[in-house]
Amino acid sequence: xxxxxxxxxxxxxxxxxxxxxxxxxxxxxxxxxxxxxxxxxxxxxxxxxxxxxxxxxxxxxxxxxxxxxxxxxxxxxxxxxxxxxxxxxxxxxxxxxxxxxxxxxxxxxxxxxxxxxxxxxxxxxxxxxxxxxxxxxxxxxxxxxxxxxxxxxxxxxxxxxx
Length: 162
Fold this sequence. Notes:
Blueprint: H1 5-28, H2 36-52, H3 63-84, H4 89-115, H5 131-161
């Protein structure tokens, strides 16, 4: 696949982040930072985003770097809300959204890199502009929007009982 040592490390940690997020979303309908899966997601996503800053085939700052920094801001804000705003029901809405949005944003380069590299030698997509990548990302965006609405409704229900 032509990955550097940093690229291999980045990929392994990124896969761990994605798996932990999926497990957390399936079990609790959110990425919960108080659970082990949420902690794994947070730390692995932080490491993956920071290592992404050292990976690029283009010189200088590029959209991938900006995306990585945005993800760091989102998960950091969610972590702050989780630790410093424990009693705030309103903060849970933002915490849930920031973590889910960071997960969605993480899937953008994941989809692109996976579909343009796998299977080795005969990738599914020919490049970032391949229609399959666009369709896949559109499907994920629709799932994210549906999931965010469901999370909002569930959190609202939780807040009404608190």
